[in-house]
Specification:
The complex is a heterotrimer of chains A (about 400), B (about 375) and C (about 260). Chain A is α+β, with helices and mostly antiparallel strands and about 400 residues long. Chain A has a domain of about 190 residues: MetI-like (MetI-like fold), CATH 1.10.3720.10. Chain A contains 14 helices and eight strands. In chain A, the strands form three sheets. In chain A, strands 1-2-3-8 form a four-stranded antiparallel β-sheet. In chain A, a hairpin with a 3-residue loop joins strand 1 and strand 2. In chain A, helix 10 packs across helix 12 and helix 13 packs antiparallel against helix 14. Chain A is globular, with a radius of gyration of 29 Å. With about 375 residues, chain B is mainly α. Chain B has a domain of about 210 residues: MetI-like (MetI-like fold, Orthogonal Bundle). Chain B is about 70% helix and about 0% strand. Chain B is built from 14 helices and no strands. Chain B is globular, with a radius of gyration of 28 Å. In chain C, the strands form two sheets. In chain C, strands 6-7-8-3-9-10 form a six-stranded mixed β-sheet, sandwiched between helices. In chain C, strands 2-1-4-5 form a four-stranded antiparallel β-sheet, with helices on one face. The longest helix of chain C is centred in the last third of the chain and has 16 residues. Chain C is globular and about 55 Å long. The chains are: A alpha+beta (about 400), B mainly alpha (about 375), C alpha/beta (about 260). The interface between A and B is large, with 57 and 59 residues. The complex binds adenosine-5'-triphosphate and magnesium ion. The site of adenosine-5'-triphosphate has 11 residues of chain C, from strand 2 and helix 1. The site of magnesium ion has 4 residues of chain C, from helix 1.
């Protein structure tokens, strides 16, 4: 037999290779070794290359002055601030776009998803057309188109005042941005803020109380309306009683631009609108799918038990639909956040445009800047997937 | 629920009667679909309002008040104040071929024409002599590459001359073709029993999926050269192709993993019981089934990738969107973003909508397949 | 189901009319599904409805709790006429329980929550009372120990018994069953039928679409045969099985009994 004639060490190797566990170990060792050598190779290349052009790998530049302006900042920033501050300003701008976009996209997406299912043929078709048109065109194109339309159709600040692009004479829409009156709270405004939080706390307490009352006596209390009254009504009441403690600073035309007030910049508007427009079309489809996934038998069974239409929605349909909707919804949120990096196309200063754009070009620190940007996005993703895993575990339907 | 005088029929002999007048006919149809309830009526009026607000204005702008023949934006505005399609007319050819030398464009056209039979063979079961022609689909990328890049008897064309629709298709088709096999390998790695393999694949997939494509493109354009041995330079287009492919593979891997996990465990066991080796059982038993059920997801990933090709304009490549944007910088056409972007949007809409219809058709076909 | 004859002492038919269907017609679009259906049900009756597939059995009993609308004729349940009046519909649905072929349990709620949902939100019963009552009915269908599981963890027969308990929790005076056993494996059928027999013995008014002829013989006081949307014949079970009047009934019986 052939194998008998082989020399002993070869036979051992062969036997090892035939052994299932040993082979698994060998393959894994080879994978890791290969990966290790590959990493070693590219790192040593990078070290050599950086040395030849006299660059190191250090983050010291972060503390040097950035030297460029950013037109929208949520924390104090001037062109004498450091690159690190610029990065934080960019990060906050990213978060601002992401949060605003997510809220808008969710609201619009849910409305569209429900409308798409409505019995009204006309509305169904309109929403269908909207969804198909919006999601089959690249998001970058939407950003550019919305930005282009805003810039080309909005008047200059001067014309905005003279041609009536104002709302009630206190807000002005122009190609420099949407200028709104800025509320400057007086000390007494604190009462309203406190009332708002008290309202929320009150709503939560009332909800618990209502649950207890229902458990004990069966009586169903109007939780929704009481919550609305507590969260909205109470602060408004306090606001009125304390004598409207807010001073408004109104935008006024001075020279070529407005002074005072508070501006929503056209770049921000374009980016937020386009991102939420695009994402809402995907969310609408998720919502529709989620509602359709709840079988008709479920509604029928609830009706047969005498449960009313709105309670059937609240107790049977929505809890089941949400299980289907939320996982893809979170991944849409993540997509929106990642797509906000296209800010650079319209000159909105997000994290990519600040540290990954201007700072990178000015300092020539490609490695360091890109590392920061990549890490920031990885953190977002990890946070969102951690949430998803937690949620999926919590809501998983228990089956055999 | 009015009472009609009941005629008495013997049991079992009652004829089928037409429904009462108040439940059929077009007026009932209209009532049901547009006015059945308060919400329904409100929605109908809202819809009519929306259509009335948007459609006439849009039609005026896009069609009735539009200008096709003019030499510049100013001329357009003199004729009518709708869309100035003249810019598209002038730039049409450029939007497709960009700076590809005019006398060599037949090569691009030929490569493009050959794409159709290739796609046809791949997508439709009924294609005549499909099995034999499959070899052609494998050869196609090489033929097309040779035609477009040149060499071996053809005039070489440098890649910085590439652009427009042609570049969009090059990036899209390359990314789509290469990401599938890489995605399959990654998916197999991710569900592999070997921990080291699994960790490597998970790390790769989650890293790529965790960052925006634009940052990867920045990496490709600004720092990829640092990681190569000194002196080695890569073409920018090639670097972009690599990144786009890697990016799509990670998403593809997740779609295929879904398909692999949907295959019942019994299939894996049956393959093992037949004595098939790992690769044999994957190739012959598992992958054919897994790929089949993931086709809709794969097509959706393709659509996503295809739309994402527009991002290359941010690092300076001129795809359709990029090349049309240059028209905006032209003093002659300055200030026509709507026309330019709408034209590009129509291009993308047509191709993506076609792909999504195809995916829907497949989904329906698969659905019936599974029921039986 | 045990072969021994069952105790029928609790099954009493009274004179009180609980369901009255007069000249009822229903169409699906152009399709005439139910043709001139006339049926009177007294309190305590156990009616079995059978007939070939597509004959309109489900449609008929679904009309009784207005899961389907009828277009002509009248349906009165407990003296209340079924119209589009939502109040009437709610009132009737509280009186009438229904058990479906595919159980339709709520998968996101435990067995106990499935049973207490309607009492809590419709009858406004205090939670403790609702749970006690639910446990009572769950014991009655012999699965009190499954109360805290989810429907997905139960066998088909157990799920169907939960569905019966869930309906009973609303204290209905009439129960509708639409092929409650046809989605079940043979060994689970008897556990569900036993539950239904017990219910009958307590005097519940029942309308039951089923092809379990053993059940019909033992429990029913009337068997109705439907075909083509019409009630072809109705009779006492003994008469119905031994001496069917119409040709179609004979054919149908020979088909379901000889296999
Ligand atoms: N929603 C509907 N729309 C249109 N036609 C329907 C609808 N539901 C039922 N039908 C038709 O009405 C007829 C009666 O259906 P039904 O479900 O009442 O029959 P069935 O006697 O219960 O049959 P099975 O024994 O199969 O359950 C069938 O021909 C069916 O195709
Ligand atoms: Mg039926």
């Amino acid at each position: 037999m052939a194998s008998m004639e082989q020399t002993a060490p070869q036979m051992d190797l062969l036997r090892l290779w035939r052994d299932k566990n040993a082979r698994a170990v060998i393959i894994q060792i080879l994978t890791i070794a290969g990966l290790f050598f590959f990493t070693f190779w590219i790192v040593s290349n990078a070290v050599t290359n950086l040395e030849t052009i006299g660059k190191g790998y250090s983050f010291d530049f972060l503390f040097e002055p950035a030297g460029y302006d950013i037109n929208q900042y949520l924390i104090e920033y001037t062109n004498r601030s450091s690159h690190l501050t610029a990065a934080v300003v960019g990060l906050l701008n990213t978060l601002l776009v992401a949060v605003t976009g997510i809220i808008l996209a969710t609201v619009v997406g849910f409305i569209l998803g429900v409308l798409r299912l409505s019995k009204n043929l006309l509305m169904g078709k309109i929403v269908y057309t909207y969804i198909e048109v919006v999601r089959n065109v690249p998001v970058l194109l939407w950003i550019l188109l919305v930005h282009g339309m805003l810039i080309s159709s909005l008047p200059s600040p001067k014309a905005s005042v003279s041609d009536g692009w104002d709302f009630l004479g206190v807000s002005f829409l122009s190609n420099r941005g949407f200028y709104l009156p800025q509320p400057n709270p007086e000390p007494a405004f604190w009462a309203t803020v406190i009332a708002f939080f008290l309202g929320i706390a009150g709503a939560v307490v009332f909800r618990r109380h209502a649950r207890k009352v229902q458990d004990a006596t069966g009586k169903i209390l109007p939780v929704f309306w009481v919550s609305v009254a507590a969260i909205l009504g109470l602060p408004i009441l306090v606001f009125l009683v304390t004598g409207l403690p807010i001073v408004w600073s109104f935008p006024e035309l001075k020279g070529f631009n407005f002074v005072g007030g508070f501006a929503i910049k056209p770049e921000f508007m374009a980016l937020t609108l386009a991102l939420s427009l695009y994402t809402s079309s995907f969310i609408a489809e998720n919502v529709r799918g989620g509602i359709l996934a709840v079988s008709h038998g479920q509604t029928e069974a609830a009706h047969a038990l005498g449960i009313s239409n709105s309670r059937t929605l609240q107790l049977v349909v929505i809890p089941q639909a949400l299980r289907v909707i939320i996982p893809p919804l979170t991944s849409q949120y993540l997509n929106l956040t990642k797509n906000s990096s296209l800010a650079i196309a319209v000159g909105y200063m997000d994290i990519v445009a600040t540290i990954g754009g201007i700072s990178l070009n000015q300092t020539g620190r490609e490695m360091e800047c890109m590392t920061i940007v990549l890490l920031v996005y990885l953190c977002f993703s990890l946070l969102i997937s951690a949430f998803m895993n937690w949620y999926n575990k919590r809501i998983k339907l228990i089956e055999r | 629920m009015t009472d009609v005088t009941e005629q008495n029929y013997p049991p079992g002999k009652h004829p089928s009667l037409p429904p009462p007048r108040n439940m059929t006919g077009w007026h009932v149809w209209i009532w049901k679909n547009f006015f059945g309830s308060i919400t329904n009526t409100v929605l109908t009026f809202l819809s009519i309002f929306l259509i009335w607000q948007i459609v006439p204005g849009a039609l005026d702008f896009l069609v009735f008040d539009s200008v096709v023949n003019a030499g510049s934006r100013a001329e357009c505005r003199e004729i009518a104040d709708g869309a100035c399609w003249a810019v598209i007319v002038e730039r049409f050819e450029q939007s497709i071929f960009a700076f590809y030398p005019e006398e060599e464009r037949w090569r691009v056209i030929l490569a493009f024409i050959l794409l159709f039979p290739t796609v046809g063979i791949l997508l439709f079961d009924g294609f005549p002599a499909r099995a034999k022609l499959m070899k052609f689909t494998i050869a196609y990328p090489f033929i097309a590459g040779w035609l477009i890049v040149g060499g071996w008897g053809l005039e070489p064309v440098s890649t910085d001359k590439f652009g427009g629709v042609m570049l969009t298709l090059i990036i899209g088709v390359t990314g789509i073709t290469l990401s599938l096999p890489i995605g399959i390998l990654l998916a197999l790695g991710r569900i592999s029993k070997l921990p080291a393999m699994r960790i490597v694949c998970v790390a790769f997939i989650e890293f790529i999926r965790g960052v925006p494509l634009i940052t990867l493109l920045f990496v490709a354009s600004t720092m990829l050269n640092y990681f190569l041995p000194p002196g080695v330079q890569f073409d920018l287009l090639l670097r972009v192709l690599i990144m786009v492919t890697l990016f799509a593979s990670a998403y593809m891997a997740e779609v295929i993993r879904g398909g692999l996990q949907a295959i019942p465990k019994g299939q894996y066991e049956a393959a093992d019981a037949m004595g098939l080796k790992y690769w044999q059982s994957m190739r012959l038993i598992i992958l054919p089934q897994a790929l089949k059920i993931s086709i809709p997801g794969i097509v959706n990933t393709f659509i996503g990738l295809y739309k994402d090709t527009t991002l290359v304009i941010i690092i300076g490549l001129l795809d359709v969107l990029g090349i049309m944007k240059t028209a905006l910088a032209d003093p002659k056409w300055n200030g026509l973003p709507e026309e330019v972007y709408i034209y590009t949007a129509i291009f993308f809409f047509v191709s993506c909508f076609a792909m999504s219809r195809y995916s829907l058709y497949l989904e329906k076909k698969l659905h019936t397949g599974h029921k039986r | 189901m045990s072969e021994a004859a069952i105790d029928t002492s609790g099954m009493k038919v009274t004179d009180e009319v609980v369901i009255e269907i007069q000249h009822m017609h229903k169409w699906y679009g152009e399709f005439h599904v139910l043709k001139n259906v006339n049926l009177t049900v007294n309190r305590g009756e156990r009616i079995v409805i059978c007939g070939p597939s597509g004959s309109g059995k489900s449609t008929m009993i679904r009309c009784i709790n207005r899961l389907e609308e009828h277009q002509q004729g009248h349906i009165l349940v407990d003296g209340i006429e079924l119209t589009n009046d939502l109040k009437n519909i709610d009132a009737i649905r509280r009186e009438v329980g229904m058990v479906f072929q595919h159980f339709n349990l709520f998968p996101h709620l435990t067995v106990l929550e499935n049973c207490t949902l309607a009492p809590i939100w419709v009858r406004q019963t205090p939670k403790k009372d609702a749970e006690e009552q639910a446990m009572h009915f769950l014991s009655k269908v012999k699965i009190p120990d499954q109360a805290h599981k989810y429907p997905g963890q139960l066998s088909g027969g157990q799920q169907q018994r939960v569905a019966i308990a869930r309906s009973l929790c609303m204290n209905p005076r009439i129960m509708l069953f639409d092929e409650p056993t046809s989605a079940l494996d043979p060994e689970m059928i008897s556990e569900v039928l036993d539950t239904m027999i017990e219910l009958a013995q307590e005097g519940m008014t029942m309308l039951c679409v089923t092809h379990e002829m053993g059940f019909a013989r033992k429990v029913a006081n009337r068997v109705i045969f439907m075909d083509g949307g019409e009630i072809i014949e109705q009779n006492e079970p003994e008469e119905f099985f031994t001496n069917p009047q119409s040709e179609r009934t004979k054919l149908f019986l020979s088909q379901i009994l000889n296999h």
